Amino acid sequence: MIRFIVRRLLASVVVVFVVASASFLLLHAAPGGPFDTDQRRSAAVQRAMEDRYGLRDSLAAQYGRELAMLAHGDLGRSMKRDVTVNDLIAQHAPVSALVGALGLLVAIGLGLGMGVLAAWRRNTRTDYGLMAVALVGISVPSFVLGPLLIATISIHLGWLPPARIDGPAGYVLPAITLGLLYLGTIARLTRGGMLEALGQDFVRTARAKGLPERTVVWKHALRIGVQPVVTYLGPATAALISGSFVVEKIFQIPGLGASFVDSIAERDYPVLTGVFVFYAVLLVLLNLVVDLAYGWLDPRVREARA
Amino acid sequence: MSLGPGAWARMRQHRLAVACGALVLAIAVACIVGPWIAAAFGLDATTIDARLGATPPSSAHWLGTDTLGRDMLVRVMIGGRIALLVALVTTSVALVIGVAYGAIAAYAGGLVDEVMMRVVDALYGFPTVVFIIVVMSVLGTRSLVALFALIGGISWLTMARIVRGQVLGLARREFVEAARASGASPTRIVLRHVLPNAAGPVIVYATLALPQVMLTEAFLSFLGLGVQAPLASWGTLVTEGSSQILVYPWLLIGPGVTMALAILCLNFVGDGLRDALDPHTRKI
Amino acid sequence: MRATSAGLVAALAACSLPDSDYFGRVPAGDELDPRVFRWCNFNDPDSLDPALTSSTAASPLVSALFDGLTTYGFDGNPVPSLATTWETSEDLRTFTFHLRGDARWSSGRAVTAYDVAYGAIRVTDQVTASPNADNLAPFKGAVATVSRRVFVLRRAVGPYAAGTVVELATPADPPGDPNRRTASRDLALRDLGAPASAAYATVAAGSEVALVMTSGGRATLPTPAGAAAWAYVYRAGAPGSGDGGVYGWVPGAELDGEPAAELAFEVRRVARADEPGLLVALAGDEPPRPVVAAHGRDLVRSPDALGVRVPDAHTIVFETAQPTPFFLSITDNRALRTAPIEAVSRAPTHWTDPDRIVTSGPLHLTAWRHRDGLTLVRSPTYWDPGAVKYERLEVLTVDDQAAAANLYYTAACDATTANVVPSTYMPVLNGEQRGRPYKDYEVSTNLGVYFAWINTKRVTNRHLRRALAYAIDRTAIPHFTHGGEVASAQLTPGTPIAKLAPADLAACGVTRDTPGVALVMTAGELCYVPPPGLAFDEAAAQREVALARAELGDAFPKTLDYRYNAGSEAHKQIAEYLQAAWARLGIDVTLTAEDFNAMLADGRAGNYDIMRFGQQGNVADAESEFMVLFRCGTPDNRGAYCNPAFDKLLDEAQPLRDRRARNAKIREAERVMIEDAPVIPLYVYTLKTLVKPYVRDYHNNVINQPPLWRAWIAKP
User: Fold this and answer.
1) Cβ atoms of residues B277 and B201 within 8 Å
2) Which of A296, C99, C532, C627 is the most exposed place for a label (fewest CB within 10 A)?
């Protein structure tokens, strides 16, 4: 077990190195630099600005400096904003995490319920209806759903703020928009898992023992039926973390996404590399957690690893 | 598991899937043929009438016009061509890479298999959408080919896993053993005996990948990284429309409903195909 | 399925905007809190440091936090602030400002002329890498100071006496920095005159520092009584790292090591016009300036070479190399705002954090939640306690236009900064759709022009360029940009002549029915009317394209590429509109959207045929803000346009002291340029703001510098 974790963590160092190198090379290969401007600027000032960050040194020298800083845990300083990358991540990542967690909560809460209900009432109108809703959730991109919700609920009805988080009410629409994307998949996975579980012997036994249907479904079958959802949670969380910037933009949430997207457009090399590395570390850790959780749920996997 | 007449019978029972298949086909045909017919009536997707501007649906323009006075119906049809082209090509790219990768891994086995599958695992943990965004931005100019390669390049992972599983299962079956015993080369065995029998799940997955790829393209369009103006895919149109719902709702309704229908229907078709071809696969 | 789409249609119909006088909710009187002004800003400020910021998002905040000699009035023109009076020399080359005595930093210390001078010294120091350094370019020696090509002699060398200002005689980069210093003992960095025990940072013996300035110079703080000169040094951090370095004063004698003492330089005296302290009018020939060999130990980079002098704590004198009629407009610029040396020294890259910042303006910063908002409060130390009527300014940071409009709609902010409304909302706001505009929607002209560069290196044929310009009916563009933009074929932007005040009409020398725009430089007094451009003329376009075909033959380009930056609907629509117009001439143009930085890089490298661009002016002056773009071989000349006749006219305009004569020369130059068509002007930008009806004295001006501290909330 310990060896498994250590091996994975060592592998993660490789992943981080690869990600850091890839993002460094990619962005430096991009046309334009961080100090390109449409304002008037003399060559002397342009050079001074580039020198401040050593941008006129050779690429190899810059790369070496970057790796050395990374090794010390210093992600550098943004070239476009008055902030160090470490501070930037510390400020914005928790906001992203909170909104992502709320979205996931919506998706899991509703998705599990819908899936169980659909499986329980399989091939009825309830089933078809719920699964149609799930499909709509999968088919409507968040950048359409978000503006639609804002137009109806915030602008027309005036029930919730259209953007920003200035109180608990500000979390509602982003969480729904974010959650609906994953809700569909979770509902469909749960339904499939539940159908399989409901057909298994131990469920039939439980039914034969005369246990109420409710207990059979929620206590016995769900434990097995939820397994595909657990597998899915790894990639889903990953996607939520690195992919929620659309929702962050629509609802003006000061998360990490905006910093990241801007850093690409602005060629803010340190921010891009820093955030990319941060995402990679997070994903590696998440996958590890999911694998461990899966092993805990399924003894066969645990044995295989030992 | 086979593609025989039994599967077709099962498929036909899935009436929603059949209806949806017909609808997707109809949309596709309309998108391909429609612009030519419209041209006969003097409508095209590029003629600009800035003074006309955005007008709501009318008998002259069934889906209205956009802010440059262009007919939305034609724009939606042209957009459909691009969206479908992107979906088909990128899914094919994913299919080729995934099938080749999965088959090689499964057939080679041992250390090669181990390494290849760990690479897939690692890529699963890679922020791929983020990666596309970076690469598309870095390329600077946006070309369709780059879009195909990139979306295809990240969509093959699941396909590789499915194919590998299928091949591993099939490799131990009698007819493969028989072929091997008769001295057929490994390439021949894979191409002639194994892959055709793995076709069912692959087709199912490909059908389900189509709407996914369309959404990815739409998402890239939202970020301004999609196809180049004056071309506009459904994704581009929906993005433009969703920013104007308070002002010109028809700019979202036309492309939005069409795209949602197409994606929804492709998903239903995929479900139907799965029930017909591959009843044992878990629903995703 | 049908139910879904029917539901969608119903939902969309339900969410169209309700019909009323104002856009969105207007809170009732008892809901209003006059103590708080909530302002929707677009984007997070890049920085609040006046030397380091260059963004539109930061500009109005910086001018509220840091006082300038003058500051922005309602109309954007400078009004007295830190300086109460000033004198201008006859030759428009020397400017003397007298400062008020009651100005205080938020730390309690008096604001003096040294703080203004320090701001200028800091901005022109290469180490600061200030994007605003060019704004001080008219100062004697400013440009050469940034590139470290100008020095003061520490001892007599050849024919030159100690104290002479010299410049590098060769075009090559300087061989090194003569200001490198080391100390044989630890350096205790501190405020000027403070004991070593009050040090806030230490530099280890032997490690290198850079000498920034010494006390007792022309523009630097006086040396403490009874002491030898002190030195202000900088210990750098690693480039790009989180360590931003530190500045501090030490007794000059402690710097006993000069690593660059033996470096060899070739220098000569600077031209007379660039010589600080030479206040006499320039006449006659330049005396000879022999080149001499000098060593690092003979030279020092010093603010003495900058044309700034502080004769006493409340007087500051600026000298410029050329007559500078628009000098007053520099004095409210962020490049010349005061900077608190004690705060900057301790934390050069994060002294503007809310817990460290020291301010001199009407507002003070108490919180900065990045990408979310800032809180500014009325400064208790500001010299005009009644200037700010509210207690708190809440800045809501928004980086999405639709979100900004929606926030305003729901009354989350009382007013917005300019141009945060998506172009798609515009037809509703401006009345196109309802027949009447909303009353809280304000449009004003902006000193900015939207145009397309033509790369003259690639599109070498003048007729072809002229055809491209003639082909565009600009009047259609406002129909799909919707923001009241002023279609224009003239490059220098301005107010539509039809909308000028009668006094300005007279100043411009035009009649009301003259087409086009005019740039009012001093209201009712001075005005610049740009020459008419190559306005839409189908026949002329056909004629020019035929000439081009005849001249070029097979070399007539089969296709041209037009670049614009992705992400904006308006840029895209304009691109599509131009493409269609050129297609009618038989010129095939492909469109390429790239991200902004890629486009800028292509522009700099000349890797394009036609490219969308925009230029905003900071000062109402056609030459310094717009014509300079077209001078041969400057980095801002992205079309690589070069016409010696144009440059010559501008050179002739430069020394003219009569502003009308100067304008006439510039107009002549602009005519030469526009007839060569290196550029296709399309429209004059506008500023569109949303302001709730209860907000008073919040107005934007042509240079987009709303004086936020003057706004207030009227409770009915």
Assistant:
1) yes
2) A296
**Considering the domain A92-267 in this protein, what is its CATH number?**
1.10.3720.10
Identify the three-state secondary structure at position B244: coil
Choosing among 3.40.50.1400, 3.30.450.370, 3.10.105.10, 3.40.1550.10, the CATH entry for C445-494+530-687 is 3.10.105.10
Note whether ipTM > 0.90 here: no
Q: Which CATH number fits the domain that encloses residue B252? A: 1.10.3720.10
Going from N- to C-terminal start, the domains of chain A cover 92-267
Nearest to B249 among C1, C13, C476 (CB): C13
Q: Give the span between the Cα atoms of C673 and C649, in whole angstroms.
A: 11
Return mean pLDDT, chain A: 83
The answer to whether C137 contacts A265, with C-beta atoms less than 8 Å apart, is no
- Nearest to C594, CA basis, from C573, C572, C616, C574: C572
Distance (Å, whole) CA C677 – CA C643: 11
pTM score > 0.95 for this model? no
Given its phi and psi angles, is residue B30 left (phi above 0), alpha (psi -120 to 50 degrees) or beta?
alpha
CA distance C598 to chain B (A): 6
Listed as ranges, residues in chain B with pLDDT below 50 are 1-2, 281-284
State the best of A27, A41, A45 to mutate against chain C, taking most chain C CBs within 10 Å: A45
pLDDT, residue A66, reads: 86
**A75 touching C (Cβ < 8 Å):** yes
**Integer Cα distance of C470 and C464 in angstroms:** 10
Count of domains in chain B?
Answer: 1
> Which chains share 3+ C-beta pairs under 8 angstroms with B?
A, C
Residue of B nearest to A239 (CA): B127
Shortest CA gap C25–chain B (Å): 16
- Portions of chain C given CATH number 3.40.190.10: 7-66+352-443+688-713
Percentage of the residues of chain C whose pLDDT score is greater than 70: 97
Q: Mean of the pLDDT values across residues C121-135?
A: 94
- Taking CB atoms and an 8 Å limit, are B141 and C569 in contact across chains? no
SS3 assignment, position B34: helix
What is the 8-class DSSP label of residue C689? E
Cβ of A48 within 8 Å of Cβ of C126? The answer is yes
Q: Measuring CA to CA, which residue among A181, A74, A81, A76 is closest to residue A137? A: A181
CB contact under 8 A, A250 and C403: yes
Contact B48 C580 (CB under 8 A): yes
pLDDT, residue B229, reads 64
- C578-637 pLDDT, tens per residue? 999 999 999 999 988 887 888 888 888 899 999 999 999 888 889 989 999 999 988 899
By Cβ distance, the residue of A144, A235, A272 closest to B242 is A144
* Pairing of β C373-378 and β C392-398: antiparallel
Q: Contacts of residue A194 in chain B, CB cutoff 8 Å?
A: none
In terms of CA atoms, which chain A residue is nearest residue B125?
A: A283
**CA gap C424, C422 in Å, rounded:** 5
Q: Give B263→chain A minimum CA distance, Å.
A: 6
Residue A46 with chain C: CB contacts under 8 Å:
635
A41, A65, A154: residue with CB nearest C410: A154
Note whether C370 contacts A83, CB cutoff 8 Å: yes
Domain assignment of residue B245, given as a range: 5-281
Asked if residue C712 has pLDDT above 80, the reply is yes
DSSP strand E in C572-627: where? 588-594, 610-616
Per-residue pLDDT tens digits for A104-146? 899 999 999 998 898 888 878 888 888 888 888 887 888 888 8
pLDDT at C6: 46
Instruction: Give me the CATH topology for the region C7-66+352-443+688-713.
Output: D-Maltodextrin-Binding Protein; domain 2 (3.40.190)
